[in-house]
Design a protein that fits this description.
Elements (H helix, E strand, L loop, with lengths): L1 E5 L8 H14 L4 E5 L5 H5 L11 H5 L5 H4 L1 E2 L6 E3 L6 H7 L8 H7 L7 E5 L6 H9 L2 E7 L2 H20 L5 E10 L4 H14 L3 E7 L2 H5 L7 H4 L4 H26 L6
Helix pairs in contact: 1-12, 6-7
């Protein structure tokens, strides 16, 4: 089981769009996939076709120890992947987790019991360094960073990298940056192409080859409760996320081979 947090401390950079569409694309590729919604806004839940307003069980109950994972997960009615859904109740977990043992490790412990159920687990983190985000980073083997090719996104990237380094040093030695995904990319913009080139120069092969363009169909899909890769599979945005899923599968396979060569085992 490979666990990836989709994280960026900046809001509005396409974390949820990436989480939902990557989950759906991996499922289409035959991978057993679980999407964990750690954002109290519940947008990944809604985008997966699950009504957050009618939830009787959510990831909140899982984190505070009221329900096991098997009782919380639901299968997306729109695609063949499972979801740990979220709603506003999750905001209360921030306060309650402070007083619990191993508060940063609650999600990691819950996922460990189901490590043979899934090939991929994707964690949609909220846009802040909160106890919820820490749970996501402590559970993950790696971080996927969606980012727009604009000045402010580049400026905030160093803060995120420093946060990941601190979590790696103090809480999760397995954590690493898997890659940077350029989203909402506009090839007509000089700034986009300049920032994209800077990312490739500084981060090299940590930058995914896939470029996700600005796409109206991707933006429309959540209102129908369907991932963009299913809403309009022929759209440029959907095609980009389908290509990204294949790139992720190939990168993970290379990662597994590298670890096997070193005699390591990924739990």
């Amino acid at each position: 089981m490979h666990i990836f947090a989709i994280a960026n401390q900046k809001g509005g950079v396409g974390k949820t769009t990436t989480s939902v569409n990557l989950a759906a694309a991996l499922a289409l590729a035959g991978k057993r996939t679980l999407l964990v919604d750690l954002d109290p806004q519940g947008n990944a839940t809604m985008g997966s076709g699950i009504d957050k307003r009618g939830l009787s069980r959510s990831v909140y109950q899982l984190l505070v120890g009221l329900k096991p994972l098997a009782d919380v997960r639901q299968t997306s009615p729109a695609a063949a992947f499972d979801v740990l859904p979220a709603n506003r109740d999750l905001a209360g977990a921030e306060v309650e987790l402070v007083n619990l043992d191993l508060r940063e490790m609650r999600l990691k412990g819950a996922l460990r019991e189901h490590r043979h159920d899934y090939d991929f687990v994707l964690i949609d983190c909220p846009p802040s360094l909160s106890m919820l985000t820490l749970n996501g980073l402590c559970a993950a083997h790696g971080v996927i960073i969606p980012m727009q090719c604009e000045y402010y996104a580049l400026e905030g990237l160093s803060d995120l990298v420093n946060t990941i380094k601190k979590v790696h040093a103090n809480l999760n030695r397995d954590l690493k940056i898997i890659g940077l995904l350029r989203v909402m990319y506009d090839p007509r913009s000089t700034l986009s192409t300049q920032v994209s080139a800077q990312l490739e120069q500084h981060f090299g092969d940590k930058v995914f080859k896939t470029l996700v363009p600005r796409n109206v169909r991707l933006a429309e899909a959540p209102s129908y409760g369907v991932p963009g890769v299913l809403f309009d599979k022929a759209s440029k945005g959907a095609q980009a996320y389908l290509a990204f899923a294949q790139e992720m599968i190939e990168r993970v396979a290379a990662w597994e081979n590298e670890k096997a060569d070193k005699g390591e085992v990924l739990s």
